[in-house]
Specification:
By secondary structure, this protein is an all-alpha fold. The protein is built from 18 helices and no strands. α12 packs antiparallel against α13.
């Protein structure tokens, strides 16, 4: 008899499969009840939280937003600090933002702040930050104040590099270049493994060059280029900015600082040491310019001829043709 009773009781997987079948058929109430049954039978807190989240998502998909919001908030209370709690709050914020209106937006932003401060290392924190930035569109001073407060509270946590780069962009839009440069530098120094590190260095270098701070721009590009050397030692990482940084380094030496020798060295490194780059024909064209700048017409014409032979499909042929005509190359 005991064996019969044990066999009659559905296993958690059976209850969950039944909930999924009912959900596919659109039988929302029955599916929700089946999810409740599966959750009660689950053996670990993590599994119970996952099933509760699926039940709440069922209610949201059915258009029962208020019921879904209550279910999400219950998950956040019952499993505080878990990844599922972060995802639940993310759903609540999305629902509130979709509702619109001043009261809805204020409540949604409060939830987004809760996500950031309670779950700064979860993916939901990145989404919450993006919503905060969008909500402050056109009000960069207000956004900068909010982000400065977040940075003070979240320093060293997973989302803080995103906070810093958004704060820097808000400062740049306000015309506060010094603050933008400081924040980009802080990001690059504090989070050397962040995917945003090279973005920060690149943006800083661009602004430095516009401001005529050529040596500082070169230093920022040097830090990006150093990742190529480090990659040879520790792995296969390649910054998407590597060849761009190499080209910009060469152009600053050539056009801004007038050092043809340093420019040529940087251009040859791009052309010959970065075979994967789509900028190698640019390097070849600027090698011709460097030779012309140095007064070596014959060498410049030879560089133009080499460009046509080595990079016949490159996008620098038109400019090279104009330079060839200007120099009177045969």
């Amino acid at each position: 008899m005991a064996l019969a009773v044990a066999c009659a009781a559905p296993s958690p997987s059976e209850a969950l499969l039944r909930a999924e079948r009912l959900e596919r058929k659109g039988r929302v109430n029955e599916a929700a009840a089946a999810y409740d049954e599966a959750r009660q039978e689950a053996k670990t807190p993590r599994r119970r939280a996952e099933i509760a989240l699926r039940r709440a998502e069922l209610l949201e998909s059915a258009g029962r937003d208020d019921d879904a919001a209550r279910a999400y908030l219950e998950i956040e209370r019952a499993w505080a600090g878990s990844p599922e709690a972060a995802r639940a709050l993310d759903h609540v914020a999305r629902l509130l933002h979709a509702r619109g209106g001043d009261a809805g937006r204020a409540e949604a932003l409060a939830v987004d702040l809760r996500i950031l401060t309670s779950h700064p290392d979860e993916t939901a924190a990145d989404d919450a930050l993006a919503r905060i930035v969008r909500a402050h569109f056109g009000r960069d001073h207000e956004l900068g104040v909010a982000l400065a407060d977040l940075h003070a509270r979240l320093a060293g946590r997973g989302v803080d590099d995103n906070v810093l780069i958004e704060a820097a962009e808000a400062s740049r839009r306000l015309g506060d270049a010094e603050t933008a440069l400081r924040l980009w530098a802080e990001l690059a120094d504090a989070y050397p493994r962040s995917g945003l590190r090279d973005d920060a260095l690149w943006r800083a270098a661009e602004l430095r060059r516009v401001r005529g701070e050529f040596r500082e721009a070169l230093e920022a590009w040097r830090k990006i280029l150093a990742t190529r050397r480090d990659a040879l030692i520790v792995g296969s990482y390649h910054s998407e900015y590597l060849d761009d940084a190499q080209l910009q380094t060469a152009l600053v030496w050539l056009d801004d600082l007038g050092n043809v020798a340093r420019a040529r060295a940087a251009l040859l490194a791009l052309r010959d040491d970065m075979p994967w780059s789509l900028l190698r024909d640019d390097a070849q064209f600027h090698l011709a310019r460097a030779s012309a700048r140095a007064g070596d017409r014959a060498r410049a014409c030879g560089e133009i001829a080499l460009l046509a032979r080595r990079f016949p499909d490159g996008n620098q042929l038109r400019r090279a043709g104009a330079l060839s005509k200007e120099l009177g190359c045969r």
